[in-house]
Amino acid sequence: MRSGTTAIIPIKKSLARSKGSHELNLEAICVFMGTGFFLDTDTYWKDEMVISPGSEYVLDSDGYVVLLKKWFEWHHAPREISFQGALDEFTELFESIMKEQTGDRKVILPLSGGLDSRTQAVALRDHPEVKAFSYSFKGGYPEHKIAKQIADKCHFQFRSFSVQKGYLWPVIEKLATINQCYSEFTHPRQMAFFDEFKDMGDVFSLGHMGDLMFDTFGYPQLTFDKEVQILTKMLLKKGGKDLATELWIAWGLEGTFENYFSARIRELLREIKIENTNAKLRAFKTQYYVSRWSSNNLSVFNEIHPVTLPYYHHRMCSFICTLPEAYLANRQLQIAYIQQNAPDLAEITWQGQKPFNLNNYHFNKLPYNLPYRIIHKMKRELNGALGKPHISRNWELQFMGRENDNHLRSWLFDSKLADLVPNTIIKRYYSDFKEKDAVKNAHPVSMLLTLALFQHKFNS
Description:
Layout: E1 2-5, E2 15-17, H1 26-35, E3 48-50, E4 55-59, E5 65-70, H2 83-102, E6 107-110, H3 116-123, E7 130-137, H4 143-154, E8 157-163, H5 168-179, E9 203-205, H6 210-213, H7 224-235, H8 240-250, H9 257-270, H10 277-297, H11 299-304, E10 307-308, H12 314-320, H13 325-328, H14 332-341, H15 343-346, H16 370-385, H17 394-399, H18 402-413, H19 423-435, H20 438-458
Parallel strand pairs: 6-7, 6-9, 7-8, 9-10
Antiparallel strand pairs: 1-4, 2-3, 4-5
Helix pairs in contact: 1-8, 3-14, 5-20, 7-9, 19-20
């Protein structure tokens, strides 16, 4: 017998055997194609499962789960507490977690133009060994300039990386081995700088999940059916439902993908015993999306150095469950924490509200932001006319252009993908991506590429 415990938000998936034959779980793969992540305990295989987050378990000698119970359930029990009281508690909790996780180790801090890593920078400001970095797309918004301002104010060493066109192809097989094809390949930009990170420090401090915890979805109290509709729309990617539906039909699965997916969402949502709509949606997304998509993409960082995540910590999860939803709206706690403890960092541009900062972002509306919008549009149009298109999406660097297209075609059409996916489906999505609507079809093409690598490395 072997026992263990899974974290509330696991960094790595814990696998167990499942009753059934060793064959592909085609229903689960359809969900993966539609959403970009495997749902709940699903894997590629019918005889394998992921152990649920926040669980205590016992495995028998053959690797089957014989006992599984939850030690943590997402809940919503808001206290009567002032906003300043919540801010004081957050400050003490966040800084203590950061100190525990980093200690006297050499810290590698990815910095962005947003709030999560900026909040970490405040907590690490007095740490003697921090090396920060940021990356920007070539031809995209220069996010690294904001990150450098933050690093300079904090006296961190800083490196700026430029994500180059086509960086994916030389490392795609290595990436497939690292993430085991449980997420697609266009998002882990850190693969472009894999070797550079090795000598930068001892441990990564990552800000994943902060934006989900410290904000609200802003919905009124909704019916259960409406919550299911919102989650369905939230989770299915552009073009994902179409691809999943076509594969469902091609593989001769029972019923329809739409009904199957809706039934799964309804079943899982019922298990979350929270009445408040926004708290329930946050719990669902954390339990099923963060643990299966965000965490899987941590595998690249984890391959280089250990990772720490203050927003993943069990004490932070418990804390969130006790806060009034109104205090979580619009990133109030993080903003107030930065304003109170590092007012100079609050004056630096907030990328999500550019060109405004944490003190004046309320003016990011007409007519106050009109001059910036006009100038920004003119710059983009001028660069486009000069043959320098604006890059804002990961896939644009990896799929667009002749050389990228040669690699993409090779994996889609010269691999074993056709052993699993009918060629007519592969050709149609590739053609629609190239000739009709690249934005809508980028996700399906990326997922087909992921399946091609899965076939190549794990199902040959």
